[in-house]
Amino acid sequence: MSDIRKLTKKDLQSFSEIASGAFPGMGVATKEDIEKLAEGLKKRHDSKISTFYGLFKGKNLAGGMMLHNYRMNLFGHKVGCGGGGFLVVSLLHKKEHVGRDLCRFFMKESRKNGDLFTALYPFRPDFYRDMGAGYGAKASVYNFAPKDLPKNGSKKYLRELTEKDIPKIIDCFNTYADSRTGMFYDYEEYRIANMKRHAKSKYYGYKKDGKLLGYFALEFLKDNPHDFMKYETRINELIYLNRDVFESFLSFLHSQKDQIDRIQYITFDDTFHFLPKDPRNGSGKMYPSVYHETNVASIGIMYRIVNTKGLFKTLADRSFNDVSIRVKFDIKDTFLPENGKPFVVHFDNGYPTLKAATAKSDVTLKIDIADFSSLILGAVDFNSLYDYKLAELSNSKYVETLFRLFRTDRKPECWTHF
Fold first, then answer.
1. Which of 82, 156, 374, 410 has its CA 20 to 30 A from that of 27?
2. Domain map of the chain by residue range?
3. Is the pLDDT of residue 227 over 80?
């Protein structure tokens, strides 16, 4: 028999020992390393937004997980989203469904707490997709030369930021989050931890009339082996509230061209390659026929709806693109069966009204919860899912209608790491 319960501070020693074997890449190998990790986790034990849980077999801890309580922007609504991270399983209990059972507990707990979504960063995307987590938007990793950036912006309002600016950074971040679905709202505890995580970064901000209208974190990575005055850098975070701020940041980065060879930048913007004069990433790779490598694409955060009916109740005041249609949703959710019961939604000029499964409908949509989670957030469009046979309709004449119904102006993005 196994039992999942909240961990005590004393339990975090065993948790840390398991973590050292689960993630050897962390470099936690010696007794001293493990004790140091345990002490760090104990400081987070009393957090208001994070909690450690463990799965016990008898008296022995077989695995554990860290759960977070986030608020997420969902088309202008601040909704609950449970975050799952630091999933560890003892090497002695691999292939005994410890990870699966912890994840199911996490999702059920989030649903019980009133959350509409859960989210996580996967160590293996396929593992979590089987549990109903859907892919977020792809992130593109660019590696451009600063000389190829525009230099027309003014640097008049740029300032170096310190920890004293944390309240303004949080306000700026949350203002940006208000305009982006998928974003988690910032808070002091996370922001302090994030700045410590990026202690090697220098933070610069755009301050005007007492307000912080944008900021970015720049980290120098390594020097050129043939020239100790040349560096590569990485932008660890970049937030801006209007295009003048962004233009100012670009001018700043352009002015570093005498010292910086390349700048690594991660973005969810599919059109960023239009910005640099030369968007190639310096790899020299080319693909048939004459396609230059500009960026590397990657998948990261995964989202999962844990309350499908609650989702449409919350979005009752949002128009789904003025489309009128009656849809029966037959969502497959084998991992969380209570979330997969059929229901009908009547969209009247886009506004949804939840109905019973027996209500009249024009078409039935069959889809897995993972793909539906991605669809509702705008990470993928309906036509693509239909073409890939990941979504089925009882009447194919409604394909274009559902494409318009679920179309979004932007793909989701998230800059909170956990």
1. 82
2. 3-120, 140-299, 308-406
3. no
Alpha carbon distance 61, 313 (integer Å) = 39
- Give tens-digit pLDDT for 385-415: 999 999 999 999 999 999 999 999 999 999 9
pLDDT for 357 equals 98
**140-299, CATH topology level:** Aminopeptidase (3.40.630)
CB 169 within 8 A of CB 295: no
Instruction: Answer yes or no: same fold for 3-120 and 308-406.
Output: no
pTM of the shown model: 0.94
d(CA 148, CA 310): 47
- For residue 373, whether the previous peptide bond is cis, meaning omega lies within 30 degrees of 0, is no
Q: Are 235 and 218 in contact (CB under 8 A)?
A: yes
Looking at every residue in the chain, the average pLDDT score rounds to 96
List pLDDT tens digits, range 327-358: 999 999 999 999 999 999 999 999 999 999 99
SS3 assignment for the chain = CEEEEECCCCHHHHHHHHHHHHCHHHCCCCHHHHHHHHHHHHHHHCCCCEEEEEEEECCEEEEEEEEEEEEEEECCEEEEEEEEEEEEECHHHCCCCHHHHHHHHHHHHHHHCCCCEEEECCCCHHHHHCCCCEECCCEEEEEECHHHCCCCCCCCCEEEECHHHHHHHHHHHHHHHCCCCCCECCCHHHHHHHHHHCCCEEEEEEEECCEEEEEEEEEEEEEECCEEEEEEEEEEEEEECCHHHHHHHHHHHHCCCCCEEEEEEEECCCCHHHCCCCCCCCCCCEECCCEECCEEEECCCEEEECCHHHHHHHHHHCCCCCCCEEEEEEEECCCCHHHCCCEEEEEECCEEEEECCCCCCCEEEEEEHHHHHHHHHCCCCHHHHHHCCCEEECCHHHHHHHHHHHCCCCCCCCCCCC
CATH 2.40.50.90 corresponds to the domain 308-406: no
Tokens 């694409």, residue located? 297
CA distance 288 to 80: 46
Q: pLDDT, tens digit, for every residue of 233-288?
A: 999 999 999 999 999 999 999 999 999 999 999 999 999 999 999 999 999 999 99
The pair of structure tokens assigned to 307 is 């309350």
Q: How many CB atoms lie within 10 A of CB 8?
A: 11
